[in-house]
Give the backbone structure.
Amino acid sequence: MQPARPLELAVLADELGFDLIGIQDHPYQRRFYDTWTLLTAIAMRTQRITVFPDVANIQLRPPAILAKSAATLDLLSGGRVQLGLGAGSASIADAIKGIGGPGHTAGASVSALEEAIQVIRLMWSGERSVSFDGKFYQLAGVHPGPMPAHAMGIWLAAYKPRMISLVGRAADGWVPSFGYLQPSDLGELNKRIDDEARNAGRDPLAIRRVLNVGEQTAELLVELTLEHGMDTYIVSGEDPEAMRQFAAGVAPAVREAVAKAR
Amino acid sequence: MNQSDLVALLQDGVTERGGRWADLGAGEGAFTLALAELLGPGAHITAVDKDGPALQSLGGEMGRRYPGVTLEVKTGDFTREIGLSGLDGVVMANSLHFVRDKAPVLDSVRAMLRPGGSLIVVEYGTDQGNPWVPHPFSYASWEKLAARAGFAGTRLLRTIPSRYFGSMYSALSIPSPREGRGSGRGAR
């Protein structure tokens, strides 16, 4: 790939009217750019589109620094950042360890992510000084800031019960991918998120439901929206012609069908 | 997956040792090395990928592990003309799912193979893609796709569990004889 190709595709997505660009985060992959550097470059080259890590591996990104990076880019971009987070699957623990991360077990990785979310929110709190004494992360009288330009969402990649529970209790969005679940799984998992949110005194409707899909028909996206509770779709952005067809044909057709049905 | 998993996916589709094969979309060459293990000394493998540096490192690894196998690397896009013909076999492992319009690619792969040559595809067992595996195809879909593209005798070789997309399969297809090739000459 030409070095600037991701930026060219991002500019095209911006021009075509896409709402979001997600960049996956696998620093141990030799061919991949650093996610935050690429998100920053994209945000500075585009005008209106929102960017997010899809999703940042919290085991490789200290949460206080990640909070600061995200807030900084949100300010520089005029509020065009969301924060996708993942616990770091146990199946890639060796790769995480190989590049200097802890390589947590599955259970520990969820506990660490839950702490990380608290740390990030403290760093965005606007308080004069914050402390946190967790098992995995600590803050000791740090002066948090800068504040993000807008109420930035924390979106979690989640599939298993503890992570799904965490979405409902503590996150602003759910961002799973086909590949780790099927369309038929979505309804039940969305219901669990709703239940967890209500139990925590939160509004389930305030939790965004973002799905990483491949190229899909308008019919399937309408079905995923109306019957399975998803509201946002991330599609492949490698083929300019496919992007044009999606923006001109599929996306408006889905919006129209959903509006009509509601 | 380790090397033995990769070998297991390919092995029932490699019935003769030696010969001339190509790995299209070889990446860092995990399946190329598995193919080399199965083909053995005297084989000639052409590894094709857009990532030139990855292919260069594959060359060193092949020389150390399978010195009797001749590796040729081609930096290029296998969806375009890459100048291969008369091959005994082609492997496309987790590469065809990046291609949206597969028919022209399969047509050119068919032209690369000698009559009776082998095409082995390795893919995830799903038709639901995501942004990073945008156009996958289940084995059931591959049977139809291969038949439409002029391949015959498609059969499932092996299925293994995969955390990503649930399963991964390998399948073998043989190019059907091209219509009109002999009759065209005879009509002159």
Notes: The two ends of chain A are 43 Å apart (CA to CA). Residues 124 and 200 of chain A are 21 Å apart (CA to CA). The interface with chain B takes residues 1, 22, 24, 30-31, 54, 91, 177-180, 182-183, 212-215, 234-239, 242 of chain A (CB under 8 Å).
